[in-house]
Design a protein that fits this description.
The protein is an alpha+beta fold. It is about 45% helix and about 20% strand. The longest helix has 27 residues. The radius of gyration is 19 Å and the shape is elongated.
Length: about 240
Amino acid sequence: MQSCTGEGHEALGQYGMEGSAAPRQRMNSTIDQALPSAAREALDACTRTRRYGRGEAVVRVNDASRDLYRVMSGSVRVSLIASTGRSITFQVLTAGAMFGEVAAIDGSPRTADVIAEGPCRIGCISAADVQGLCRDHPEFAFMLLRKLAALNRRLTQKVFEYHTYDVRGRVCLELLRLWQERSAGPLTITDRDMASRVGTTRENVSRIHAELRQQGLLDRSKSEINDMDTDGLTRLLADCEFH
C-alpha cells in the first residue's frame, strides 16, 4: 500500500484538504511553541487546573461560562448530540490545545459539548484574565486570532465536504486526514467514532470499511488500521462527488 507521501499527499489539496499541514496538528499546536517565555509565564500564572474522568463534561452546550481552557494532559472530544441521540464530532483535542476562545471573546453561550475522552487535566483561564493577557501580551492575542482562523478554515472545509461528497467520500477524506495526522504506527478508530465524524450511521461506516478492504485500499483489523492506499483513496474521491 502507498503511504501518505508523493501523489497521495499532494492530491489532498486537490480535493479540499490542505496537504501542507494537517488540521488536527494545526488545532493542537502546543502553546509552548506559540508564545514567548514572558507570555507563557503570565498564562501559567492565570491558569487553574482540574482533573476530569472519562465521560465527564468540561463544557456543556449553551453554558453561560466564558472561561478559556487548556488541555494539559489527555484528550477531549468537541461534539453535539442530535435530537435522535446521534453524536456529531467536530474535533478531538489533545495535550497542548486550547478551546473556548469564542465564548471568552464574545460572551455568548457555548456552542458544543466538550467531554473528556479519558482521564485528563484541564487548565482554566477566566475571561477577565484572557482580556488582561491580550492587553499585556500581544503575542497571546495573535495566538488566539490564529486559532480562530484555523477553526474557521476547519469548519469551512467541513461545509465543503458535506455539500460535495457522498458518505463514502466523506469517510475516505476523514481516513486520509486522520492517517496524515497520526504520529506513527497504526490508526485506531471505531466505526461509531468515524460515523460521528462524518455525519452518518455506524452501519454505513462498517459497510464502507468492508468495501474498502475488499478493494485492497484498507488494511484494517477490528478498530485498528495498519495501512492504507492513500493514492487509491484519493482517486476514489472523484467517484464520490455529487453530480
